[in-house]
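We append the chain.
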Amino acid sequence: MGKDNKSNDLRNLKAGGHEDRSSEDSEEKSGSQVGLGIAIGTALGVSFGVLFDNLALGIAFGVALGVAIGSGMDHKKKKDGNKKQPDDEVSNK
């Protein structure tokens, strides 16, 4: 059984040695907003860290704030996507 899994894994690898992830779900293709939130939060954290003369604390708060904002944006995006699906089904009838 282990040998079969290993041969299947080898068949799934592309020539470059990377897995083919093109068949992953569309949510992963659309991207996550957490990375954007971290980038913006870090920039704001550095600004406030320099302003208050405590760069490490500013970066830490900026990253934490960015993760929270990015997660909220992901949640809102997912929630809005779920709302649109039933409406589309009703309009198609």
